[in-house]
Amino acid sequence: MKRNRCSLLHQTLFGRRLCEAFCPPNKVGMTVSTHLFRTQQNLNLQEETIISYIVLNMKKYPQGDIAKIALENERQEGYVRIGKETIDASRTKNNYHMIPPPDIGYAKFIDQRIRQAGVKRKVKDDAIKMVSFVMTSDKDFFDGMPQEAERAFFTDCVNFVKKRYGEDNIISAVVHKDETTPHLHINFVPITPDNRLSAKYYFDGKLAELQTAVYAEVGKKWGLSRGKVGSAAKHVDPKTYNKVVKQATADARAENENLKEANADMIKRLDKTLQEVNDATTERDKLIAERDKEANYNQALKDAKDGKIARGKKELKEQVIALTAENKRLEKENSILAKDNGDLFKEYQKEKANGQKAEVAKKAMFAVREHEPEAYARTFFKATSILQPFIELFSAPIPLPRNRLREIEREIEEEKRQEQTFTSTRSWSKAD
Fold first, then answer.
1. What's the predicted TM-score (pTM) here?
2. Can you list the alpha helix ranges (DSSP code H) found in 81-145?
3. Which one of 171, 199, 218, 353 has the fewest beta carbons within 10 angstroms of its own beta carbon?
């Protein structure tokens, strides 16, 4: 940022003293304090994005409104607050006049001025007899402003009105400091250069030019900005303004609370995500370390098996650890194999015993077949279909005539039928 030499001096107390000693007053008689404030204002404009505007609001009053405007402007006893701005009565003593009010009052001064100017046309009852300007800027502009600089600013405002509408036509000029922002009320009679009483002459279709003029002659000098030329924006009364500001403030606060909640939730989610990332990073580093460690041990084990005995302490330690781990692995594997071998041996012993029993049963069957063929035949025919193949497995042809075998088979069939009949009869008897 480019700063002039004087602006840099103002940043220290020593520099301010030098500036007061050597900086000349400006061409319109600006004092050193005002010069310092103006310079600091320009510096602030460079450093901040806040834009302050020159403000000029104009109102026109007929005869019937003049008395109450005078009471309110001069804070005279019995005045009624016209606008909705809050007046701090404890600060009313700080109000001051740039041009004192006439001793004869606003209304008589206006009538006297109309006569002095030689206004020829008869003044109508509803004619505009007084025009009032409110000239100011915003609170940011006045914050920190020395009293002398403030007076210099309002002096420029008064001189602007004098030059444009005639010093003789000014009724009063008073600065109010008992409201939110310091502001100048300056009232004048709208008498034209050709001695007519005509507010239309000054203001009809000329308000934009008025705003441009006050910016060029006052605002620009004080580092203020002009409102947008051709803007459709209109001045609103304080009541409407305060209502809009109150609602906007409430909306902004509600939005701020929502943003706080959203921000808190986002911070929690971010913290959780960061923790998850940290945990994943730790786990990754752990796995990498274990992999590298395992790779080192594998290489150490391979070297040991190959007979490459390490010479360094670190490498030798790795070989010992690797061999110990390998030994434990082999011990575990041998234990598993021993258990498996034991189980297999038990199964073998069991199968061997079963085989011996089967051989004894087989010899018994052969003996029955040989010595008691009819008993053997009856056993065969009575056996179930599952056991018959097993019996046949151990038997040669039964040594009986074929006719006798058929008779035995028929006898067994008859016994089965009788047995079934007997079983059925007992079942019916129980049911009865």
1. 0.48
2. 106-117, 139-142
3. 353
